Amino acid sequence: MKISEILKSKRPVSFEFFPPKKQESEHVLFNTIKELRKYNPYFVSVTYGAGGSTADKTLEWTKCMKQDYDYSVMMHLTCVGVGIDTIDDIIAKLTELKVDNILALRGDMPAEMSEGNICRDFGFAGDLVKYIKLKAGEKFSIGVAGYPEKHPEAKSMADDIENLKRKIDEGADFVITQLFFDNFHYYHYMDKVRAAGIDVPVIAGIMPIINISQAVKFTQMCGASIPKPLLAKMENMSAEDQFKTGIEFASKQCGGLWASGVDGLHFYTLNKYGATEQILNNVF
Ligand SMILES: Cc1cc2nc3c(=O)[nH]c(=O)nc-3n(C[C@H](O)[C@H](O)[C@H](O)COP(=O)(O)OP(=O)(O)OC[C@H]3O[C@@H](n4cnc5c(N)ncnc54)[C@H](O)[C@@H]3O)c2cc1C
């Protein structure tokens, strides 16, 4: 089902997975899908390695979620460094699989691609949205990424929101946000997004902190911030206490967002079920 249809009447809870690199990690993902099935996600999504590094695996898992588990699936698709032919091929494959949803992304230039010698058919995610619309019309519901704490490369929040508006004007139906830990960032962002005339649903991306050093690395890469008191508290905790504290914090965060009428919650599961399961049990 198209996510644009779901969003007409629902505030979806959804799960994001990544295609495991190693075969021995696949059973972890199968187990996670099995354990999270009872929460009846409105949709699930599968990430895509920028430059196409996971293209085959992403398609394989997208197919598996759709055909074996009967989920509404959204495939992430990045356009940095790839040509129109590659995007045409993916669109054809998704059409064949009857997948209805694409998260259209620019992605980050993979280190192995040389800056001087890359294909520049697409500059930004908005170009990909435009192309998918041109090529496939209304076949796909298209989502795009939004950044409550600003994309790291954007000069200002105002610029970033203007660029988000461009993606919506090209035909994107909804936004999923980068992870954030302080709801203030989301509420403040939403005020600006709505003031800019962007009226599509903005689903909140949620990633519980279950390991503080991992979370610090991750947030440094994506430009999100961990509230200082939480960071200070978790840094000296045992692994077990970090997990417990991270779940408590994320449960409060999700409860607050839900009560405020957030358009949906999208869990970055990292292919694990424990944290997501406990948060959902606490919130709903
Ligand atoms: C929900 C979510 C899922 C993600 N999934 C993946 C994934 O599966 N694989 C992956 O590799 N990465 C993924 N990412 C990360 C994403 O690829 C990076 O954050 C990347 O740096 C930007 O991608 P984008 O689609 O937001 O880019 P864009 O929207 O193109 O924006 C990139 C930068 O360019 C600016 N910009 C945009 N349009 C214009 C324009 N027309 N003119 C001038 N400046 C412009 C923006 O302000 C921003 O600073 C995901 C991010 C989110 C939030």
Helix-strand blueprint:
Blueprint lengths: L2 H7 L3 E5 L8 H11 L6 E4 L8 H13 L5 E6 L5 H13 L4 E5 L19 H12 L4 E6 L10 H13 L4 E4 L5 H13 L6 E5 L5 H11 L5 H8 L3 H21 L5 E4 L5 H10 L1
Parallel strand pairs: 1-2, 1-8, 2-3, 3-4, 4-5, 5-6, 6-7, 7-8
Helix pairs in contact: 5-6, 10-11
Concise account of the structure shown:
It contains 11 helices and 8 strands.
Counted up, domains total 1
The largest sheet has its strands arranged as 1-2-3-4-5-6-7-8
The overall average pLDDT, rounded, is 97
The small molecules bound here are: flavin-adenine dinucleotide
The percent range for strand residues is: 5-15%
The CATH architecture category equals Alpha-Beta Barrel
Poorly predicted parts: none
Largest sheet: 8 strands, parallel, barrel
Q: Given the structure, what is the number of helices? A: 11
Radius of gyration: 18 Å
- Distance separating the two termini: 24 Å
Taken from the alpha-carbon principal axes, the silhouette is globular
* Order of helical and strand elements: HEHEHEHEHEHEHEHHHEH
